[in-house]
Write a structure and sequence with these properties.
single chain
């Protein structure tokens, strides 16, 4: 029991420190830099939008990051660092690779690691990396990896990304994203310019996912616009998931407002975001999720949100969820909701599901739900399933459903299946 409490406590500590790092609270209090103070005054800075490959759909936050945020560089040069580190250690305080992770107490071990990361700079990074490389790869060091590269990205993101490129495929993406998120939190324009300069379009999209995460720390609107500008659709979905997670940390009301403000430029991504938000909302309060679903315009997005709500509500109360579905207004989402209700209910209680389905008029719009019901109960109640399949209005769909039920029934009890087919589907019964 003590071990379980210790591991649980360590998990909370890791999550706590991850939140500190991702929102910039971990550093000690210092005087506010002039360039950040200026950012609070609208109209005094140019938009730091890259004019390259990734900026067709939006812009980054209008914050002037040129005034003292980086070291003086040559024309066109970007360093990917924050200038003078906030923390500094002398070379005499190099990290001992053998002692950094030696403790078996998870709290002590992570606490020591956090202390080192708070003071991470070019003088001690080599020792920290040496200690990190001794940890087991992948899941064995996932939390340490994100913290390390986020801290490294504060003062030399490009070096961190270059190092990540030599890691295994399961780690390098998350390592480089953590470094880019850290970099973009302070220097979004420099981070985006650097990513935009890469030759491989896939790499650009991959890197911009991390930048989106960092930009979201200061400006969710700019991060959302940048997410929609990602060329590679799979990376756009990944960035969308990160933004959903970030918004949910700020509260469900904030998340709902953000989702409702999304543009229609990519309906598929918007639908994916709405489904994720509906999942989080319905998990906590399915009735409120149902109310929100009805605010969504009729179409595929509403159908997806309703299906998600039903998934959670049916686990709590099949009857309540079924009554709500029955009251839905006419439209495609109504019939998709009926089918989803069947998915959740039929296997657990086929009799109640059948009684509920009988309340709906027999039309072709009900065919998909009836087909689904017949297939769901074919293993438990093959004769009832066959009768329901035989009630489908569309002939081609009816024949496919009947054949499915018959073949399933035949594999379990050929005599009963053939007897039914002889009377109800002669074309399936054996010729002899």
């Amino acid at each position: 029991m003590r071990l379980a409490i210790s591991v649980w406590g360590a998990t909370l500590l890791i999550a706590f420190f991850l939140g500190w790092f991702s929102h910039g609270i971990f550093q000690p209090k210092v005087d506010e830099p002039a360039h950040l103070a200026a950012a609070a005054e609208p109209g005094k800075q140019d938009s730091p939008v890259s004019k390259g490959k990734m900026t067709a759909a939006g812009s980054l936050p209008p914050i002037n990051l040129e005034a003292g945020a980086t070291e003086k560089l040559g024309a066109g040069e970007t360093a990917g660092r924050l200038g003078d580190p906030i923390f500094s250690l002398s070379r005499s305080s190099m990290v001992s690779p053998d002692s950094l992770f030696e403790s078996t107490d998870p709290l002590s071990r992570m606490g020591k690691f956090i202390d080192v990361l708070r003071n991470l700079n070019e003088n001690n990074i080599e020792g920290v990396l040496e200690a990190f490389e001794k940890l087991p790869e992948n899941q064995g060091r996932a939390q340490e990896l994100k913290l390390l590269f986020y801290a490294w990205g504060r003062f030399d993101a490009k070096a961190a990304i270059a190092y990540a490129e030599n890691m295994g495929p399961g780690e390098k993406i998350f390592a480089s994203r953590a470094a880019l998120a850290s970099w973009a939190t302070k220097e979004p324009k420099a981070a985006l310019n650097w990513a935009d300069s890469q030759e491989d379009p896939q790499k650009i999209s991959e890197y911009v996912v991390g930048i989106v995460e960092g930009v979201a720390t200061n400006d969710m609107k700019a991060a959302t616009e940048l997410m929609f500008s990602i060329d590679q659709i799979n990376y756009r979905y990944q960035a969308a998931s990160l933004l959903v997670k970030d918004n949910l940390q700020r509260g469900i009301d904030h998340t709902l407002q953000w989702a409702e403000s999304l543009p229609e430029s990519d309906p598929a991504v918007k639908r994916n975001i709405y489904t994720q938000v509906a999942s989080a909302l319905a998990k906590e309060d399915p009735r409120r999720g149902a109310e929100w679903a009805m605010k969504v315009s009729e179409g595929e997005t509403r159908s997806s949100v309703i299906a998600t709500v039903i998934n959670y509500w049916a686990r709590e109360s099949n009857q309540e969820a079924a009554e709500w579905v029955q009251q839905l207004p006419e439209g495609d989402s109504r019939y998709k909701a009926i089918e989803q209700m069947v998915n959740q209910w039929a296997w657990r209680d086929p009799a109640s599901t059948a009684e509920w389905l009988n309340q709906f008029p027999a039309t072709t719009k009900m065919d998909s739900s009836i087909d689904n019901f017949a297939r769901r109960i074919a293993s438990k109640e093959p004769e009832i399933a066959a009768d329901w399949a035989n009630s489908i209005q569309d002939d081609s769909r009816k024949q496919r459903a009947i054949e499915y039920v018959y073949q399933n029934w035949k594999s379990r009890n050929a005599a009963e299946a053939n007897a039914w087919a002889t009377l109800n589907a002669p074309h399936l019964a054996p010729k002899e």
